[in-house]
Amino acid sequence: MAYIILALAAGWLLSLFRAKLPVWTGAFALILGLWTFFSGRYTGIWWLAWLLFLAAAAIANVAGLRRSLLMKPILAMFRRMLPPLSRTEREALEAGTVGWDGELFSGNPDWEKLLAEPQPELTTDEQAFLTGPAEELCRMLDDWRIVSELRDLSPEVWRFLKEQGFFGMIIPEEYGGKGFSASAHSQVILKIASRSIAAAVTVMVPNSLGPAELLLRYGTEAQREYYLPRLARGEEVPCFALTGPEAGSDAASIPDSGLVCRGTFEGKEIVGIRLNWEKRYITLGPVATVIGLAFRLADPDHLIGSQDEPGITLALVPAATPGITIGSRHDPLGVPFQNGPNRGKDVFIPLDWLIGGKAGAGQGWRMLMESLASGRSISLPALSCGGAKFTARAAGAYARVRRQFRLPIGRFEGVEEALARIAGSTYLIDAARAITCSAVDRGERPSVLSAIVKYHSTERMRQVVDDGMDVMGGSGISLGPRNLLGRIYQAAPIGITVEGANILTRSMIIFGQGAIRCHPYVLKEMQAAANPDGIRALADFDRLLGEHIGFTLNNAARALFLGVTGGRLAKAPIGPARRYFQTVTRMSAAFALAADVTLLTLGGTLKRREKLSGRLADILSHLYLASALLKQFEDRQWPADELPLVRWGCEESFHLIQESFTGIIHNLPFRPAAWLLRLVVFPLGRPFAGPSDRLGRQIAAILLEPSPLRDRLTAGLFIPEDPAEPLARLEDALAKVIAAEPVEQKLREAVKAGKVRKGTDGEVVAAGMEAGIITGDEADLLRQALEARSEATRVDDFPQL
Ligand SMILES: Cc1cc2nc3c(=O)[nH]c(=O)nc-3n(C[C@H](O)[C@H](O)[C@H](O)COP(=O)(O)OP(=O)(O)OC[C@H]3O[C@@H](n4cnc5c(N)ncnc54)[C@H](O)[C@@H]3O)c2cc1C
Q: Which of 356, 468, 599, 635 could form a disulfide with 395 if both were Cys (CB 3.0 to 4.6 A apart)?
């Protein structure tokens, strides 16, 4: 037993230090030697043990033997296990860049690298746009009128958007656009979303995945010179049409066709493309002047190349081209941004309408996947963050102003729980939004991280607004000009569904793509296995698999070590959040191990095991979200008042990570692997209980009164000054109610002591003044607060609807 323990300890130490194979061989030879020597009996069993050991050592250490006896069959098995990848899957996997997600997959994230990344900063022009045209636009937006009367933005707003360049934020200045950074673009969307979701979506789409983005990356110079200035000036309204009745989430299966053929265009016979399509759900489609169209190109007569079917291709087609039917609208949950179907019947276009010209034929899917990574990092996270910040500001103020059972409702623990989630999630979404945008600004195209931030910001926003609605009770439900949250609540599922519906994003993209894209070895092993040169393939595979085994063993040893020590010895920046950095490192090692164990035991079938890959996606996501919180906290140089928000976010993430691990351990089909995981990941039990009630109370309190921290948490919103605006009314009531609270307290005590008779608020104020309990000024203060409260909590009613 002692020698077995010694062997296990040696294995653990060698794994921890990633010892080379000869060192392993030497160490085990030594242990076996000691064991043989001290056993004192040189019987046949020892000869057999030595024989087996020497054979194993020879196979492991002699490259020729190892490759032919071990690696060859493993490579053959690996090739069989690999799920066949279609061209579109391969292009999706190859798109985008790997950043912090790669570090998390490594099991040993390099914090110095993350902390050295520059903080997002806006230029003077970007700042001026936010405080100028963006604020001006918000003042012009009357969401109730947009939703209930116009069912569209007003003509003045459309004009303003075009004239002020809102549709050209991503277009460089040389083409007449604003040339804004992703961070600035995100701030503009965030601000508008806090005022009108319909307006935010309208601004979002031309700046997201669509004609401008595609032309910038892949257009010909002639296309850029023609379209970009027109798009920047708003002379062209773009849309991008990919989805159709049969192809939603599985967008690569679009049936829409483009046939390369001869035809007549503007009176001349040319080689062009005959298009037939049916699309739906297309944002800005009904008012678009130019359609970015995705279709499947076929060239059976080889008029433009040697391929029969070049594949998915993109074109820019003016909406007025004969054969196009456009204009009718869908009604997306009552949020009236322009969205509708469009169709094309035998629409003949010239080849130079293809994005990138003839060279762009068949390149459409790659173009889309590469562009998606940046668009997905910006628009929906900004929209969600705007909605969450607005909810935090409004629901918090309402919870202080609104009284039931003679107390502000925010003082009840049940409401406090909801407020804590609102504050904590809002802070979290904002940190993830900012860090992801700054990665885009550094030139990254984060394919996996953008999926994480899209998924979690939209899900958190849905949860925040659900909580906000609960806090606001009937006043959240009764729609009308006074309603604050109803429209955000209605819009929440839209963000969940677009740019990759969330269920699919969680279960197929975040881990599914991440495991291949961000894992230090899997993609390289797949590429090695696919190499048609058998000798090269075997040599590369042999080297990579050896390194991969060392990596997995190292993560297992580190996860156990960090588990036993609670991560205390992990390398991490010094400061008040040090323990959280260490916990991310600990769980990252555990995640890297779990990823390998799952890949090894499930192989290609993991693609179908979405519940397991969804849980792995959650772990990766929460590691990223906690990293974003820590990065922001360090960048801001540890503001003490923000520490409770950082703690709440990290502790909740660690708890959710633990829940996901528990789910994986319970459900992994190969039970010995699950037992091993449990032992290594949680050697001393499950340590993460989530944020305490006390911490929840601390962060809920941030929302209940004006403070610099409340302003920072909700920074970037449009805060109206017009007292007729519902948010302005609520802010006014919040200040007055807080100012009058000491007076109210005096009166309450006087009533309790029997010095003032019970009655309505007005009667008690009058009686209190008469009894000399409060002064005339205090009575005025209280009356103003009562009036402001009653105004702020009133709801709309209408003549018979
Ligand atoms: C308001 C709005 C605006 C839009 N704007 C545009 C636009 O401008 N341009 C454009 O081209 N498209 C647009 N879309 C389309 C949008 O991208 C699609 O709705 C989306 O891709 C989902 O397709 P679907 O609605 O057909 O749902 P489906 O594909 O039918 O999916 C339904 C559900 O099944 C889940 N699901 C599907 N497959 C899987 C899987 N393999 N694993 C797990 N879950 C799965 C999905 O996650 C989803 O929850 C818009 C849609 C809406 C509603």
A: 468
Compute the distance from residue 249 Cα to the ligand 1 centre, in Å.
5
CB atoms within 10 A of CB 128: 12
**pLDDT digit string (tens) for 541-588?**
999 999 999 999 999 999 999 999 999 999 999 999 999 999 999 999
Cβ atoms 302, 260 nearer than 8 A: no
In terms of residues, how long is the chain? 801
Q: How confident is the model at residue 801, as a pLDDT?
A: 65
**Residue by residue, what is the 3-state secondary structure of 379-417?**
HHHHHHHHHHHHHHHHHHHHHHHCEECCEEHHHCHHHHH
Looking at the CA of residue 249, tell me the nearest atom of ligand 1. Answer: 29
The answer to whether 16 and 561 have CB atoms below 8 angstroms apart is: yes
Question: Exposed (0-12), middle (13-18) or buried (19+): which is 581, by Cβ within 10 Å?
Answer: buried
| Cβ–Cβ < 8 Å for 628, 431 | yes
Mutating to test ligand 1, I would choose from 86, 201, 367, 504 the residue with most ligand atoms within 8 A of its C-beta, which is 504
- Residue 245's pLDDT band (boundaries 50, 70, 90)? very high
Query: Is the CB of 314 within 6 Å of ligand 1?
Result: no
CB 314 within 8 A of CB 354: yes
Q: How confident is residue 800, by pLDDT bands cut at 50, 70 and 90? A: confident
The protein residue whose alpha carbon is closest to atom 41 in ligand 1 is 504
To the nearest 10 degrees (0 to 180), the angle between helices 197-207 and 211-218 is: 20
Q: What is the C-alpha separation between 73 and 84, in angstroms, rounded?
A: 19
User: How much is the average pLDDT of 345-374?
Assistant: 94
Residue 645: which H helix or E strand, with range? Answer: helix 643-667
| Two structure tokens written together for 607 | 């693609």
| Separation between Cα atoms, residue 223 and residue 581, nearest integer Å | 48
Cα of 250 vs centre of ligand 1, distance in Å, is 8
- The predicted model scores a pTM of 0.95
- Nearest in space to 713 (alpha carbons), one of 456, 363, 420, 305: 420
Partner residues linked to 259 by β-bridges: 274, 298
